[in-house]
Amino acid sequence: MTIISKIFTAATMASAVLAAPLAAQAAATNFALSAAGASFVNGSSIIPDGTFGLSINHLVMQNNLLTDMPGAAISNGDPRYIFGSFDPDGTVEIDLGQVRQVSSLGAKVQVPSFGDRYIVGPFHASVSLDGLSFTTFGAPISSVSINASTTNPVSLTGPLQDARFVRYSFGPDSLVFPGGGGSAIYQLFATGPSAAPEPATWAMMLMGFGGAGALLRRRGGGSVYRLVEALPTGEETAEEFAAPDDATALRRAVLVSEGQIQLWRGDIRIAPALNA
Q1: Are 256 and 197 contacting, i.e. CB atoms less than 8 angstroms apart?
Q2: How far, in Å, CA of 106 to CA of 162, rounded?
Q3: d(CA 134, CA 106)
Q4: Which pTM was predicted?
């Protein structure tokens, strides 16, 4: 057996040990929350301040898309994000704050059965790593029709995909109130598996990485990294593991971490104080 095959055998054994607890503890997380680091980038349109004599706070309207606890964005108490009139495809874009793996994108919307500023659809979405080049999200279906029987929230699902920027598009203005603002949406979501396993799983993963690291050290392959983590409890932990390169090491470090981390390769600090 070659050195490389032995290394992969060790990694496979560690993966097998960890598969059960990871599957049991993995949970979907909404990354489209300001509390998770997401922020509003732009919208194709927004209802003008003063419409129907109402005071409209655009910042609150935008922030409401990224929170479970929306506040009044309009002086009449309405918390919804309302597009401007005659928008051909009401679209909002957000920044997730870092690259996330997502499997579902969607939003709470106003559907036709309620009649007030309803979304026409179809709902569709796209994702990007750099905010410049976007690709269509969703497989095998890339858009969802919206009608009176639509299940709210509306969503698209697909295989796990890396994304930092997300564009949500809801179709043309419904013209429910022509000249007085357009369609309305509520909260956005971009869900994927949680990046932080339970403490027991975290420890088991580090044990697996440490075993692989010991093998690599004995065989002279790869590099040994030291992960120093400041936990929310105030404790600090330090563990070593092996990885073939800095990018792989960083991905592993973020995967198993629950607090602020520093990642070192020898005397070189790869990642200072990242929020995992």
Answers
A1: yes
A2: 16
A3: 17
A4: 0.64
Spell out the domain ranges in the chain.
3-26+197-275, 28-193
Residue 132 contacts residue 122 (beta carbons within 8 Å): no
Tell me what pLDDT residue 275 has. 46
Residue 21: cis peptide before it, omega within 30 degrees of 0 = no
Report the C-alpha gap between 135 and 153 in whole angstroms.
Answer: 22
The pair of structure tokens assigned to 24 is: 């049991």
pLDDT at 273: 54
The answer to whether 165 touches 128, Cβ cutoff 8 Å, is yes
Topology of 28-193 in CATH?
Jelly Rolls (2.60.120)
Low-confidence residues of the chain: pLDDT under 50: 1-25, 202, 212, 215-220, 275-276
Asked whether 214 and 181 are in contact (CB, 8 A), the reply is: no
Residues across the chain:
276
Task: Provide the token pair at 167.
Answer: 């564009």
